[in-house]
């Protein structure tokens, strides 16, 4: 247990330059509190202890603003940055070295039995407010952009943005953190294309109107 705590502290120092001391992490990092409470609750859940794991998860939700079902399986060096509003469902599986930001949902799409929440591979980054829904897999080294809604499987080493989420590029494994400023904007591109089409149609209408006016003038002169 102490080894897991040391590893979690080391992860926070690696991922968050704002972390200044171990005491600060213990007192001021809700993501740290939530993952430690979850690991304890998960052990009880796997041991089929009734009710207590859910009580722990609800206490953690009240205390941290982060809701993790005790049934969720979470790998090593998992880090929730800021954390408020994060929801992680019962059958979620998360690999090692995963980073997620605030208001992320790893949820289901209905009341279907069995595996109904997503599986995240290793070294995945999930941006602020993203929603990953259903029993889909997000591949290793994937990057999910802020606000994306992902309902289809995501390949390894890919970046996904938009609603619904779509792959916009592939990158080298372990390339680094999610760089929102460098990512394409599919909706913006579509709007630009629509503007260009509207502009072209306006030019065609102007040309047609001029042609009809000239024809009318010629008919009047005749």
Write down the Rg.
Answer: 25 Å
The separation of the N and C termini measures 98 Å
Name of the CATH superfamily of the largest domain: Hexapeptide repeat proteins
**Considering DSSP H and I runs of 4 or more, what fraction of the residues is helical?**
25-40%
Give average pLDDT, whole number.
86
Bin the strand percentage: 15-25%
Alpha-beta classification? alpha/beta
Number of helical segments with 4 or more residues: 5
User: What's the total number of strands?
Assistant: 15
Please state the second-level CATH architecture of the largest domain.
Answer: 3 Solenoid
Query: Main sheet?
Result: 6 strands, mixed
Element string (H = helix, E = strand): HHHHEEEEEEEEEEEEEEEH
Spatial arrangement of strands, main beta sheet: 3-6-9-12-14-15
User: What is CATH's topology name of the largest domain?
Assistant: UDP N-Acetylglucosamine Acyltransferase, domain 1
Shape: elongated
- Overall CATH class of the largest domain: Mainly Beta
- Low-confidence segments, given as residue ranges, are none
Task: Count structural domains.
Answer: 2
């Amino acid at each position: 247990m102490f080894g897991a705590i040391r590893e979690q502290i080391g992860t926070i120092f690696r991922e968050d330059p704002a972390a200044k001391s171990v005491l600060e992490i213990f007192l001021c990092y809700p993501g740290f509190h939530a993952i430690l409470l979850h690991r304890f609750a998960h052990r009880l859940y796997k041991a089929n202890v009734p009710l207590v794991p859910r009580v722990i998860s609800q206490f953690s939700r009240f205390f941290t603003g982060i809701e993790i079902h005790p049934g969720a399986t979470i790998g090593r060096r998992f880090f929730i940055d800021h954390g408020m509003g994060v929801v992680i469902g019962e059958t979620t599986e998360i690999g090692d070295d995963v980073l997620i930001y605030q208001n992320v949902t790893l949820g289901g799409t209905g009341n279907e039995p069995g595996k109904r929440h997503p599986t995240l591979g290793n070294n995945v980054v999930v941006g602020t407010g993203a929603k990953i829904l259903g029993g889909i897999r997000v591949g290793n080294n994937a990057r999910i952009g802020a606000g994306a809604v992902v309902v289809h499987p995501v390949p390894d080493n890919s970046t996904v943005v938009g609603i619904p989420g779509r792959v916009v590029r592939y990158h080298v494994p372990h390339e680094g953190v999610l760089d929102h400023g460098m990512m394409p904007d599919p909706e913006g591109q579509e709007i630009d294309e629509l503007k260009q089409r509207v502009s072209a149609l306006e030019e065609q209408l102007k040309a047609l109107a001029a042609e009809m006016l000239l024809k009318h003038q010629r008919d009047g002169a005749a």
